[in-house]
Amino acid sequence: MVGHIRIIVIGNLGTDPEMRYSADGIARTTFRLASTRNTTAAGERQQQTEWFTVVAFRQLAEQVNQYLAKGRRAYVEGRLQSRSFDGNDGKTRFVNEIVADRVLFLDRLGDRPAGQAEAPPDTGGGAPPVDAEDLPF
Fold first, then answer.
1. pLDDT averaged over 10-residue windows placed end to end, the chain, 137 residues
2. 56 assigned to some structural domain
């Protein structure tokens, strides 16, 4: 049996989600998520930021595209996928991305940008959107 790597990331969107449809009509939304942690080195506080590319499909892709925007906070759970492709210059490029099967919108409703929908729907796994303070870790 071949396994896959599960990953959970909490962070802020660094880009607005981009949604496209495949030739079969399947929605695919991609966005970048920045996760920052504070560290102390030699008595100085430092921030260390990791960037992740996240991909969502079908209904989850449509919900993410509708309710998330650059700067919004999100919890993403999915599997880590590595793939390669040939760039326009003919060179092979390698990509690591999270294929999301669950996305929770972590911003409070009062924090939403003007014009954004009232309340995001459940985005998978039967769990409602939660506040970051409610997470068990």
1. 81 96 96 91 86 96 95 96 89 92 83 47 44 46
2. yes
